[in-house]
């Protein structure tokens, strides 16, 4: 799962390399508006006639991508690092499958670490049903829920949450690295 996601992460990093140099911040509104200059992006990469990339850039998903990733000051992630700092590495690995696979595995490991920051916590696996278990007729009815106990648990949870400080994410915002300009590709 993580390796497939890493492959797509590399693909989109390659596809959108240099996109930050084509972002325009328009401040005439109360809220700044971020505009992506599609013609400049396609022209600098020599892909004006590329129907696929043109359709990708005109899609709603890309508009969401620009609005989410356009601000110059926000929390950075693995994708930002790939687009900004791994341009040459990805380009060099194009003709070398073993290096490409190694990089994909490194990315997959980083994705796994991002989702599982505490690897020592083991999740209990649900055992597979034994062979022929579907033929058994001793299915027990679902137990009735004790409404009083449910209310007690809800009240305990509310009491704990009211006394606890508000949950904040530990993500630190920073200036998003621009990476090399589009013309380099």
TrEMBL record:
PROSITE patterns: DENN. GO terms for biological process: regulation of Rab protein signal transduction. GO terms for cellular component: cytoplasmic vesicle. GO terms for molecular function: guanyl-nucleotide exchange factor activity. InterPro entries: dDENN_dom, DENN_Domain_GEFs, Tripartite_DENN. SMART domains: dDENN. It comes from the Eukaryota. Residues 1-76 form the UDENN domain. This is MTMRD protein. It comes from Alca torda (Razorbill).
